[in-house]
Design brief:
Blueprint: E1 16-29, E2 32-40, E3 45-50, H1 52-61, E4 68-76, E5 82-90, H2 107-113, E6 120-131, E7 136-142, E8 154-160, E9 171-179, E10 182-192
Parallel strand pairs: 3-5
Antiparallel strand pairs: 1-2, 1-4, 1-6, 2-3, 4-5, 6-7, 6-9, 7-8, 9-10
Length: 199
């Protein structure tokens, strides 16, 4: 069974921002492996933090000289400044119960079977801002209600792209592509138009 790095949505109004990037992780310091940069195949660097669960995988299984598919949560303040939090590593062989015959397997083909590709992000949340001149939109994402860390309850993502102003305060599901340090809108779907302002 091939494990999907970006799980299917379980609830129509599920907020999320999650993506997959192929690259090498380069820690800032050898004594502090959880912070550093993810360097993609084009040599672009993105500031990255490894979260707890992924950190134990990193220490046990990851060869820092190799490229992996990283499952990441994106954060940004603007379209030039992406920050990633690594939630997991997608390796169907080493880390999942999948027959190990990696010499014959093409990871990007496996991703394509799941309707995914390198640098793809799934973002779901409320459209809270549209800048028609800059062609930018802002999506507000609510973290998991059950999350203990209430400090990071909500966050906003700035995305390059255009959505009609009429859809402000609608709940939208976006397909996003990462280009360098920018997140760019590929396509979107309106899940519910103009949510009431009382949420």
């Amino acid at each position: 069974m091939l494990k999907n790095p970006i799980p299917k949505v379980t609830n129509q109004f599920q907020h999320r921002a999650i993506g997959i990037i192929n690259g090498k992780f380069s820690p800032n310091r050898t004594d502090q492996l959880n912070r550093g940069f993810l360097i993609d195949n084009k040599g672009e660097k993105i500031e990255t933090v490894i979260l707890g669960k992924a950190f134990s995988l990193l220490k046990k299984h990851i060869d820092l000289e190799k490229s992996y598919y990283w499952i990441v949560y994106p954060k940004n303040k603007n379209t030039q400044n992406l920050h990633l939090q690594v939630a997991g590593i997608w390796d169907p062989y080493q880390l999942n119960d999948f027959p190990n015959n990696s010499s014959k397997t093409n990871f990007s083909k496996l991703l394509a079977e799941l309707d995914l590709k390198d640098n793809y992000f799934s973002v779901r949340g409320e459209l809270v801002f549209v800048n028609t001149q800059k062609k930018e939109i802002v999506i507000k994402i609510r973290s998991d209600i059950n999350s203990k860390n209430l400090k990071n309850k909500n966050f906003k993502l700035v995305i390059k792209g255009e959505i009609s102003l009429e859809l402000l305060h609608s709940f939208v599901s976006l397909d996003i592509n990462r280009d360098g340090n920018s997140l760019e809108l590929i396509k979107y779907e309106v899940i519910e138009k103009n949510l009431s302002n009382n949420n």
